[in-house]
Every structure is written in structure tokens, then in C-alpha cells.
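Retry 2 of 3 after timeout on previous attempt. Resubmitting C-alpha cells to design endpoint.
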């Protein structure tokens, strides 16, 4: 299966029919035509209902929002995230990040003894029956250079597929399994225990965004194991075609972190990639994950 490698890749920022309401409480500076915008004029520690509603609309439009110079505490970080829903704890972080507890504020500390390994395109917690709605990531300590994070618009990536590929995948499902990543670095007894609580799950390959109605690709190299109903060779080949869409810069944005910067992304519409180009320098980030809903595909939405 061959995709064209040259020529314009012009993607819509939002699906047809979605009404955009310009913000009145802040300004946005886009990082790319389709995804990512810096928000100016907002103090994340001082959020009222009107401002929350405007930020939510901006999130649906840009998929990931960036805020600089936000010297917020862990308590204020948590309060901001709680505006968007129930916070969730990650059951595996305490095994892969030494000293980590079950707190909903997860500290991701990388240094000479713990290199960054999140440098692959992924959406968060797709191994769960209800993957995350989104996440809020705050810079605590940064390397002098490097450690950027990239996001991709999963809707734009889907839109850029040839029609024959879209037709082929529209009703397919794929199995997602945390054991192919976290499970490889965890004690065997912990893997066995948690496998009962978090068994492999099936999700649509094409997900319908629950608020915008946009079709998005919902597979990733870290957690997606195989496409249901295909043999291993055919599944790997098809997933390879879809994953290559994530490598297109036209669907991406890249954020260079600065002290006290915050990123807030819609996990239902994006994948992200943490560049691991700063080892052995130190990079410390605080992250909060917001619980989501069960992904819906084209068959379920019909």
C-alpha cells in the first residue's frame, strides 16, 4: 500500500459545520495551521466559568493549548485540571518511575540515571476501556537545550489518507495492551496482577470525537497490538501505513518548553511525542491526567 509522498497537505483545523466563536478573554498565537496555539492573557490560577468555557472552545479548535509564565503550585495545577473532569491515577507509574506514588499529580523526572523513553507517537492510556480526556503538563525543571514535545492532529492525519484506505479502516477495531510497553519493565508478579484489572481492550481504528464529531485515527505504536480480524502480517502492514501519517510535519506542532510553561491537550484528538535529546541533562515535569469516555467508532455512531 503506497501513499503519495509529495505535494500540498492542507488539512482542515476543524470539521465542517463546527461553529467557531472567537475568544474575548484572551488571544491565541497559532503554532501551525491545524494544531497548537499559545494562549496569552490567562492566569491559570484564576479561572472563572466564562473563561473556562472560552478555553474549552479553544481546546476543541486547536487541540493543544500552551500557556507560558504560569508559576502555579501543585494545588493550583490540580484545580485547573479538575475544571475539565475527574482526575485519574496511573496504575503503572510507580513501577517505572522510582519514588512515584499513586497521586494524581505525577512527577516525570529524567536525568543521567533515568533517560526519557516517551519518544514515540502515542495517545495516553488507550489501553483503558475509557482512555483519557486530556492531560495538563507543567514544566518544573528544564535542560538547557532540548526536551521539546510534539503533538499531531489525529483528525488531520485521518483526513490526509487516500479514500481507499479510509474505506478499508472505517469499521475496523484494534486491540490495545499496556503490557507491550509498561509491562516490559515491570516485575512479573505486578504484570500478572494488573493484567486481571486491565485486560486488553478493543477500540475503533477510526474514532469519532465526542464533541466535534470529527473522525480521527485512534491507533499508536506504543499501545496498539493488532487489528482485529487480520493476520499478523496484514495487520502490521496496515498499521504501518497509518503510523506513517504521524510522521508528516504538516499535521504536527512542536513546543519548546520554558520555565513555568504549561501544556493542555485533548487526548481524544491528538497524539504526542516527547523528544529525548537532552540526556544526561535533567528534565522534570508534573503531569495530571483527566478521565475520559469510551471511544465511539463509525458503526456505533451510525
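Retry 2 succeeded. Sequence:
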Amino acid at each position: 500500500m503506497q501513499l503519495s509522498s509529495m505535494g500540498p497537505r492542507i488539512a482542515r483545523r476543524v470539521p465542517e459545520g463546527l461553529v467557531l466563536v472567537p475568544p474575548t478573554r484572551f488571544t491565541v498565537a497559532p503554532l501551525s495551521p491545524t494544531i497548537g496555539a499559545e494562549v496569552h492573557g490567562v492566569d491559570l490560577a484564576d479561572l472563572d466559568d466564562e473563561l473556562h468555557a472560552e478555553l474549552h472552545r479553544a481546546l476543541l479548535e486547536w487541540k493543544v493549548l500552551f500557556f507560558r509564565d504560569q508559576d502555579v503550585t501543585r494545588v493550583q495545577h490540580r484545580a485547573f485540571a479538575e475544571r475539565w473532569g475527574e482526575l485519574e491515577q496511573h496504575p503503572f507509574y510507580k513501577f517505572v518511575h522510582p519514588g512515584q506514588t499513586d497521586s494524581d499529580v505525577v512527577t516525570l523526572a529524567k536525568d543521567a540515571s533515568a533517560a526519557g523513553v516517551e519518544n514515540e507517537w502515542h495517545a495516553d492510556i488507550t489501553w483503558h476501556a475509557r482512555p483519557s480526556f486530556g492531560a495538563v503538563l507543567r514544566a518544573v525543571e528544564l535542560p538547557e537545550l532540548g526536551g521539546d514535545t510534539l503533538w499531531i492532529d489525529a483528525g488531520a492525519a485521518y483526513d490526509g489518507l487516500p479514500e481507499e484506505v479510509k474505506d478499508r479502516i472505517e469499521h475496523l477495531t484494534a486491540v490495545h495492551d499496556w503490557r507491550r510497553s509498561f509491562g516490559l519493565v515491570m516485575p512479573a508478579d505486578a504484570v500478572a496482577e494488573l493484567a486481571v484489572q486491565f485486560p486488553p481492550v478493543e477500540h475503533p481504528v477510526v474514532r469519532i470525537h465526542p464533541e466535534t464529531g470529527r473522525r480521527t485515527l485512534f491507533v499508536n505504536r506504543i499501545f496498539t497490538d493488532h487489528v482485529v480480524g487480520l493476520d499478523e502480517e496484514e495487520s502490521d502492514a496496515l498499521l504501518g501505513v497509518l503510523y506513517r501519517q504521524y510522521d508528516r510535519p504538516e499535521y504536527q506542532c512542536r513546543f519548546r518548553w520554558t520555565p513555568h510553561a504549561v501544556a493542555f491537550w485533548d487526548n481524544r484528538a491528538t497524539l504526542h511525542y516527547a523528544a529525548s535529546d537532552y540526556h544526561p541533562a535533567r528534565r522534570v515535569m508534573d503531569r495530571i491526567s483527566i478521565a475520559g469516555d469510551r471511544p465511539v467508532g463509525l458503526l456505533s455512531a451510525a
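Attempt log closed. The CA atoms of residues 124 and 166 lie 24 Å apart.
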